[in-house]
Design a protein that fits this description.
By secondary structure, the chain is mainly alpha-helical. The protein has helices spanning about 5-25, 25-35, 40-65, 70-85, 95-120, 125-155, 165-180, 195-200, 210-240, 245-270, 275-295, 300-310, 310-330, 335-365, 380-400; strands spanning about 365, 375. It is built from 15 helices and 2 strands.
Amino acid sequence: MKARIFWALGAMMFFQFFVWGCWYVTMGAYINELGFNGVQFGWAYSTTALGAIFAPLVVGIIADRYFEGQKILGFLHIVGGIILYVVTFITSPQAFFWIMLLYTICYMPTLAIANAVAFNQMDDPKSEFPKVRVFGTIGWIISGLTILLLTKTLGYNIEPTSLPFKVGAVISILLGLYCFSLPRTPPKGKSTEVSIKSLLGLDAWDLMKDRSFAVMIIGSLLICIPLTFYYNSTNLFLNEEGIEGAAGIMTMGQMSEIIFLLLMPLFFKRLGVKKMILIGVLAWILRYILFAYGNSEELIFMYYTAIILHGVCFDFFFVTGQIYVEHKAPERLRSSAQGLITIATYGIGMFIGSMVQGHVQGAQEIVDASNEITGHNWTNIWIFPAILAAIVFVVFAIFFKDEKIVEAV
């Protein structure tokens, strides 16, 4: 791959995740400021999961068959950016849900399409793609640091405002225009028959007869419930605790994710799949205990530690799970198997998680005499996902059979 193409794809990945990081991290603080209760909070965040469920259909039925990849990518980012900007004028929880759902239906398919555009230009995807994909994680980190910089520059906390959404919207539109300059990616599936069953990963359903594979899929779905608490609630939690620049501080999680991702081949050789999964789940339990019993003064190191644990939490569970599924599935079913775990986690798991998180957060609201939400009982909120993660730990410890898959890394 030529250097010019490498940097062009790197820029695409950078801004792809910069856009997501702008609004997703701070949305909780923003809609809390709008007065959304816990249930409405959960529905707002569920739009990402619903968008993930629609994404394979958009990619498989439309993008892969009728349009060049870079063009559909540009179109979706431009339309999505316009919709994201419109969201900033919405204050009704019901209207917010529907407009955000339209946005995520535009955005979530771009994750797969951006990968397809990158793969199409690569001679050796196994060695070249990670180098391009890491720009996406860097983009997410820089989005958080940008919000921190704007907060310091403007002299007030912008996280509970619509400004991060507006920044994301403008960058999305600019990214969309940029995408039309990317190398041509012709549609791959124009002459192939579309199977909804295959697009949703249901062709791989027979693999569920294997107990360990079934435990991996079901466990991945279940762990997404405590995962959602971190993604949806942490920024609001840190803001209510009086932590300045919460979005910027949270980027420490993505920094640790890069480090542990690079170290994963070593861990695979030393630990194997089961131990890595169990360590990942233990990290989730520890993270929520640290959040529950730390504070923003002498115990603030507990908050920082909980955030930094994101590398272990995410890489040791989700990346390990994806590699395991790739190894376990026959070659003809690998795409369907990856589709199955993606729908189970980012779709169904995150949707259920958003609903559960919203109800738990709503039950722990602190209200004043005028019924305005003034805070939350965060200790009780964080203990709940810690218990859920402990249940997943027991399930994996008892029912999952370890396998050596060093050659898959």
